[in-house]
Structure formats: C-alpha cells, structure tokens
Amino acid sequence: MKRILKTIAILLFVALVFVNYNTTNAYAANEKEVSVVVVDDITTAVPAASASSSEYTTVYNFDLKKPAIVRVVVSQSNYQYVHSDDIDVFICNDELGGSVVTNGKIDSLEYNTPVERTVNLEAGTYYVVFKENSKKDPFADGKTTVGVTAQYVDRTVDDNFSLKNAEEVKINKDITGFFSETVHKEYYKFKITEKSKVTISTIAEKNKANGKPMIATLYDSNYVELEKADINTNNSAVLITKTLNKGTYYFSLDDSTSLNYYGINNVKITTSKVSVKAPKVSSYKANATVVKGTAEKGAEVYVVCNGDTFIGTVDSKGQYSVKTTKLKKATNVKVYIISDGLKSKVTTVKVK
Fold it and tell me: What's the pTM?
C-alpha cells in the first residue's frame, strides 16, 4: 500500500511540473515586448501604443534601466460588452500575473476606452497581464495594445536602504530620494564639524489620504534614536530641529506604514551656529595703537579700551588687526566678535 501511495505521489508531482512548464512556456511564447519611451516629465507624457495583438492571452513586458515613475496606458477591442462585463488589467512582477506591483491594478477596461495607471518602480522587467471577466467570446479581429512611458529618477545615493550601510550626504545640499513599489525606507548619514543647530526638512507629495503618517527619525553615531517626527502633510515640511554636538549622525524616512508618499521626495539638512569661539589676542603692548589676534573668519571684531570701542573684521586667514588709541600700561583690553548674529565670550588681557 505504501508503495502504491508513493507511486501516486510521484505521478502527481510529475503532472504538476508538466502543467507548470507548459503554462509558463505558453505565456512566454505569447509575450510581446513594449518599448519604453523615456521622458523628462511624466505628467505631460503621452505613451505611444505598442504593436497590437489579436491574442487576448498576450502578456506585454517592458524593461526599466533605472528606478522610474512609469505611466502605462492599455486599450482593447476584443470584447463586446453586456452589463457588468469588464476586463481587468494588472502591472505585475511575473508573466503569470501572480505578483501585482503596489497600485498595479489598472482600472477595468470597459468598451474600448483606454485606461492608464502611474506607478513607481525599481529597475527590472515588468509585465502587463489581462484577466477576463467577460461572459462574451472575444471578437476574431479584436486587439489589445499597451503603451509605456518612464521618467527615470537619479537618487542622490544608490544604496541607502539600511541604517548601518547608509551613505553619507552633504550638508546644505538637496538630496533626492525615491519611494517605489519595493522601497519604502531611506537612510542617510551626515557629519557636522562643530556644535550646531540642525534642521531637516523635506518636500514630498502625498498620494493618498489614509491618515497614516510617514516617519522621520534622527540617530546618533551608535544608531541610538535621538528624535522622531510624524509627517502627515503635503509638499514641504520641517521634520526635525535639534542642537547637536560635533559628530556623525543618521537620518531615516519610513513610509512603510502609510504608503502615502510614493515617488520622489527631496530632503535637505541645514546647520546654523549655536555659539562662537572667543577671539585670541596676541599683540597689545603699551603705547601701541593696534590690537592684533585671531578669530573666526569674516567675523566683526570689537576692541574695548580707553573707554572707547573700536571695530574691525577678521580676514580670510582668520587674523585681525584693529586700530585703537594709544594703549596704556596696566589697563584692560576687552575683545569679542560677532558672527552670524551670535556674540562670543569676551577675551580680556592686561596691557604690559
């Protein structure tokens, strides 16, 4: 009995493999490749129809060289409709239509009016699959067509999909990110060279209104969470503002819960000073009429002596030389600077 059951199991397995092989080959033999029209702006693009197919079971495929915003337009004239008849069309990861991309169900085809769908995809091969709901038989001369346009997207960093492998981005530079069918999180690394007030902002278009936010998170160099913010607005938003010490930090955007912000998002990390180093005074001898020293480049220097205040500017080498009245021995000279609206501590020296 066991031998009989084993034989039956083997025969069933062989039959399944045979059916799957023939089904896959049938689809592969009936595939039609669609040329992708690359455009600069997907919002004004009009996809050109592919060569038509009279076979209703035709599966169309197209290749993307890079991540892209993709518009797919589909039409068919295979069926004459009665009430509640329609044809469903899907953008899929496989030719059998088993794995539909996010937002990949194109509106049902009714009559011969073209329908379209815009999706956000990574580089790769994708398939447009028709699924029949009609009770009618297809026309002998019926046809299907598919058109595809793509606006390719260049991310600022190519591999920013994990926290510990995040690539470094520059402060005060625009950063382009892209949420697609498979990418819902982005991570960035940045460094600041002095204690600063850091502001992280974004520009992202909200595609849906399900009430769930995108999450922005700031981490320190040990990947410890410092601050988190919810984003539930459209277009520009300041996400996080925080004073940070000199060092390395990480930042992430996470849309995996809301799935609201598909497409391009732009991030910018800016810094501003929170303090200014006090100036150094190197030359202040008795009877001299000038005070010299070093301080932050471009800052205004204020020298207070003999009851007056004298003003100068730190040059591009970080040096200053401010003319004063004759310095008196044993009197105090006070020096401070102002840079970006911030006043430093006062440096006081006694004239020798």
Answer: 0.72
